[in-house]
Amino acid sequence: QVQLVESGGGLVQAGGSLRLSCEVSGLTFSRYTMGWFRQAPGKEREFVATIIWVGSITRYANSVKGRFTVSRDNAKNTSYLQMNSLKPEDTAVYYCAADRSASPGEYAYWGQGTQVTVSS
């Protein structure tokens, strides 16, 4: 059974930092692309960042580029999203996802989400 469990969310003031973790079990983590998404109240889910399993290539949404960093530790089956210089508009539920493809259209597996709230 595949499980993705996010942690690290919380309440932070604008300008602060948080690091989200996504621990994965039930699949060969090193062979899966990891994606991070978020959904704010009343809005559609949007892409945040991805780290491809081949070469650990990363890609970011323009809204977070230069502030967020996605990484992975294959020995710990965990992906991380380091979020710096947080803004109130970053407030959302953050989800991690996994897919075998190097360029997923739809990710196969999803976590349950973790709330990030940035106060002004």
The whole-number mean of residue pLDDT values reads 96
Name the poorly predicted regions. Answer: none
Q: Tell me how many strands there are.
A: 11
The structure class reads mainly beta
What are the SSEs and their pairings?
Blueprint: E1 3-7, E2 10-13, E3 18-25, E4 33-39, E5 46-51, E6 58-60, E7 68-73, E8 78-83, E9 92-99, E10 109-110, E11 114-119
Parallel strand pairs: 2-11
Antiparallel strand pairs: 1-3, 3-8, 4-5, 4-9, 5-6, 7-8, 9-10, 9-11
Q: What can you see in these coordinates?
A:
With 120 residues, the chain is an all-beta fold. Helices cover 0% and strands 51% of the residues. The protein is built from no helices and 11 strands. It has strands spanning 3-7, 10-13, 18-25, 33-39, 46-51, 58-60, 68-73, 78-83, 92-99, 109-110, 114-119. Strands 2, 4, 5, 6, 9, 10 and 11 form a 7-stranded mixed beta sheet that branches. A hairpin with a 6-residue loop joins strand 5 (46-51) and strand 6 (58-60). The radius of gyration is 13 Å and the shape is globular. The mean pLDDT is 96.
